[in-house]
Input
Amino acid sequence: LHRSDEHQSLIIDLSQYQIYIGTAFLDRIRQLLQGHTAVIVIMDDNTQKFCLPLISPCLGDFHPIVIPPGEAHKNLDRCQKIWSEMVQAGADRHSIVINLGGGVIGDMGGFCAATYMRGIPFIQLPTTLLAQVDASIGGKLGIDFQGLKNYIGVFANPSAVFVVPDFLKSLPERQLRSGYAEVVKHALIGDPALWKKLKQIINPIEVATPELLVPTLEVKRKVVQSDPFEKGPRQVLNFGHTLGHAYESFYMPADEALLHGEAIAMGMAAALFLSVKKMNFSLEKCIDVMDYLQKVFNLRKIPSEDLSGILNFLKRDKKNVGNTINFTLLHDIGKPRIRVAVDPAEIEEAVVRYNDHCRNAE
Ligand SMILES: NC(=O)c1ccc[n+]([C@@H]2O[C@H](COP(=O)([O-])OP(=O)(O)OC[C@H]3O[C@@H](n4cnc5c(N)ncnc54)[C@H](O)[C@@H]3O)[C@@H](O)[C@H]2O)c1
Output
């Protein structure tokens, strides 16, 4: 980690590329674009409206590709349209792509760049909190396929990532809160000192400073550098995600579908009760984190009649081995353990305990 006194901003070095945190570094984009035959900027309607004006002074001439917002467009049809526009814009091996958007644009625009003419360089300019602290780092790119999330994709690193907290000012509050769940997750799995600082935060926009974003990103950097192709240790990042994904899928058709981070916050809370049971995690700390999650997130109670449907989704989790369901749990804050086999009765018990501590109505 280098401090740039001149800019009062920060750089995280992932050896193959850098993450620049703070507005002062935006000038570097101009340098990175030099010598490229065409600059393609992929964005959605919202990021074109709210984020492009902040960075257009650094871009020079560019070819915009604007897509409708939302996960529903993260698919192969849309990639074909993007590739076609790149061909029409005359993009060649010496061109460069800038992905200006949330995780949808980052994953899909990165995938389009990494496969166009066997791969051209791309820069990630994440504009949601989720993309800034999670999706834009680690090299996982891809799209959904036949209803299966992130089923087609590649690993490829960007030329650089620019984390600009100012982008978050226009992000809808619910999206911001959802992304904040990943910030809390990073603190719980990797940085007890960061967790102490986060406990003072009630409004997630307060996290939009280099002082808090840097340690959050550092947790993810360490994890992905130890396991770039997700062979094992990277599974610590699944903390809260085993149940979280099942909640997300189960409640998808409901009127009040959960956003990813909302489901992850609920999944983390239940994983804490499992950690108490299976890992000797302190009950006092579990309740402390649970109370915080309740203050910040809209933790819903899980009606008992929903449990069997949720368990069905859990049994289909890609990460299971045989009949056991694998969880990432905590020995302590900052001390995760991957692949803890948990049986359905233990999950039910954890969800009951979660419900007992949940103030919100069903
Ligand atoms: N590659 C990875 O490692 C990784 C990790 C986590 C998540 N993801 C992926 O990320 C995606 C979710 O990302 P997301 O939560 O950023 O969703 P998103 O990209 O759909 O963005 C959420 C919404 O916010 C809008 N928006 C974005 N930035 C804005 C801004 N600054 N101001 C106003 N509106 C703005 C978007 O238009 C969209 O409507 C999923 O597809 C998920 O699979 C990938």
User: Anything to note?
Assistant: The radius of gyration is 20 Å. The chain has 14 helices and twelve strands. Residues 260-279 form the longest helix (20 residues). The CA atoms of residues 52 and 100 lie 8 Å apart.
